[in-house]
Design goal:
With 379 residues, the chain is an alpha/beta fold. It is 23% helix and 29% strand. The chain is built from ten helices and 19 strands. The chain has helices spanning 41-45, 100-106, 117-127, 141-149, 160-163, 201-209, 223-228, 247-257, 268-276, 363-378; strands at 6-11, 16-21, 27-35, 53-57, 61-62, 81-83, 86-87, 110-113, 130-135, 169-170, 191-196, 213-218, 233-236, 263-266, 281-297, 303-314, 323-329, 335-340, 345-348. Strands 10-12-11-13-14-19-18-17-15-16 form a ten-stranded mixed β-sheet, with helices on both faces. Strands 1-2-8-6-4-3-9 form a seven-stranded mixed barrel. Strand 3, helix 1 and strand 4 form a beta-alpha-beta unit. The protein is globular, with a radius of gyration of 21 Å.
C-alpha cells in the first residue's frame, strides 16, 4: 500500500479536509455523518442503513482488530466512504482474517485518515449532516465540490430498494443460533415474515434464538403476498433513506396493520409504521448514530443505553390518539418508540439487535414473542 497517497474530503458548504488514503483509489459521494461507537466498525460498514452515506468514526483509532467473516451484518459493505483519525496497521485479534485497509480495497470503498475528525464532527453537529465527496483521484477542491453539489440529498431519497433482497428466502441459522432460549417450551416455533428494508443479520439471529422460522421478503412485497405466507408475526426492519419517499410500502403496511397480526418495527420500520398510522416523519439535524444513546421507557421508567443509526424521526404530535409514545431519546426528547393501544403492534427508533452496541434492549424481541403467544392464544 502506498501510504503517501493523498485523499480529499469536501463538504457541500465548501469545507475541505486533506488527508491520506487507506482504502480503494476511487471517489465516492453521499451524506456525511458520524458514528460515536468505540468499536464495531465492521458491523457499521456492513449495515445497509448506511447506504448513501460517508461515515466518520469519532473514536480516534480504527482497524486495530482487523475484520473477519463472522461479524458482517449483510452480504457486503454499504457505506460510500469511510473517514477515521488513524487507521491501525496492526490487527490484533485471533479471529482477524484481513486488515481493514485490505477489506476496503477488496470492496472498492475509499477511506481517508489523518484528518481532524473532531473538527469534522463539530462542523456536522453545528451545521447539520450534508452532502460530501471523498476522492483519491480528484484532488481539486472546486472540481470535487461541483460534483458534490450535483448529487442527490438524503431528503426524499428512496434507498431500501437498492439494498433489499432480490428474492424471498428462509433464514438458515447456524446450530448455535438455533438453541431456543427456553428448551422446556412446548410452544410451536413461530413463523415470522421479515421485511428486508436493509435488515441486519443479527436481527434474524435474535429470532432464531427463540426457535423462530424467519422468511425474509423484499421491501416491495405486498400485504397479500405476506399474509399468504401465514405469518405468526411481521417484522419491519431497519434500512436507509427517507421514509416519506416510500408511499407504496406505507400503503401495504396499512393493510398489514388491519390484519390483527403482531407487528414489530425497528428504525426505518418504525418510521414507516408511524406513517402508516397517519403520522409524519422529519429529518434530524445530524441524526443519531452510535452505541451510547440513552433511551427512557415511559411504560417502566427504566433507562436503556442503546445503539442507533438513523437520520429521520417520527413527529410525536402527528400521531393519532390510538397510538402512544412508549420511549423517548433523553438527549433530545425525540420519539424512540410507539405502540398501538388496541392492536398488537409496536416499534422502536433504535437497534435492539445491537451488533455493535449494548444489549440493554434485547428484551424487545422477547416482547414480540409474547405478543405472538397472546395472539395465538386468542385464536
Amino acid at each position: 500500500m502506498n501510504e503517501s497517497k493523498a485523499a480529499l474530503l469536501v463538504l457541500e458548504d465548501g469545507r475541505e479536509f486533506h488527508g491520506v488514503s487507506f482504502g480503494a483509489e476511487t471517489e465516492a459521494f453521499g451524506e456525511m455523518v458520524f458514528n460515536t461507537s468505540m468499536s464495531g466498525y465492521q458491523e457499521i460498514l456492513t449495515d445497509p442503513s448506511y447506504a448513501g452515506q460517508i461515515v466518520c468514526m469519532t473514536y480516534p483509532l480504527i482497524g486495530n482488530y482487523g475484520v473477519n467473516t463472522e461479524d458482517v451484518e449483510s452480504r457486503r459493505p454499504w457505506v460510500e466512504g469511510f473517514v477515521v483519525r488513524e487507521a491501525s496497521r496492526v490487527a490484533s485479534n485471533f479471529r482477524s482474517t484481513m486488515s481493514l485497509q485490505d477489506y476496503l480495497k477488496e470492496n472498492n470503498i475509499v477511506g481517508i485518515e489523518h484528518i481532524d475528525t473532531r473538527a469534522l464532527v463539530r462542523h456536522i453537529r453545528d451545521k447539520g449532516a450534508m452532502r460530501a465527496g471523498l476522492s483519491t483521484i480528484d484532488l481539486n477542491s472546486q472540481s470535487l465540490l461541483a460534483k458534490v453539489l450535483s448529487t442527490p440529498s438524503m431528503a426524499n431519497r428512496e434507498l431500501a430498494s437498492a439494498v433489499t433482497t432480490d428474492e424471498r428466502f428462509v433464514y438458515q441459522p447456524v446450530p448455535s443460533e438455533s438453541a431456543i432460549r427456553d428448551p422446556q417450551s412446548t410452544i410451536k416455533p413461530f413463523h415470522i415474515v421479515a421485511y428486508d428494508f436493509g435488515v441486519k443479520t443479527n436481527s434474524l439471529r435474535e429470532f432464531a434464538k427463540f426457535g423462530c422460522r424467519v422468511t425474509v421478503v423484499p421491501a416491495g412485497t405486498s400485504a397479500a403476498e405476506t399474509m399468504a405466507l401465514k405469518p405468526d408475526g411481521i417484522f419491519l426492519s431497519n434500512g436507509p433513506g427517507d421514509p416519506a419517499s416510500m408511499t407504496a410500502v406505507v400503503d401495504e403496511i396499512k393493510k398489514l396493520t388491519a390484519s390483527q397480526t403482531p407487528i414489530f418495527g425497528i428504525c426505518l420500520g418504525h418510521q414507516l409504521l408511524g406513517e402508516a398510522f397517519g403520522g409524519s416523519t422529519y429529518k434530524l439535524k445530524f441524526g443519531h448514530r452510535g452505541g451510547n444513546q440513552p433511551i427512557k421507557d415511559l411504560t417502566t421508567g427504566k433507562i436503556e443505553i442503546t445503539a442507533h443509526n438513523h437520520g429521520f424521526a417520527v413527529a410525536a404530535d402527528s400521531l393519532p390518539d390510538e397510538v402512544e409514545v412508549t420511549h423517548i431519546n433523553l438527549n433530545d426528547q425525540t420519539v424512540a418508540g410507539i405502540r398501538h393501544k388496541t392492536l398488537p403492534i409496536f416499534s422502536v427508533q433504535y437497534h435492539p439487535e445491537s451488533a455493535p452496541g449494548p444489549h440493554d434492549s434485547e428484551y424487545l424481541f422477547e416482547r414480540f414473542i409474547d405478543l405472538m403467544n397472546v395472539s395465538i392464544a386468542r385464536t
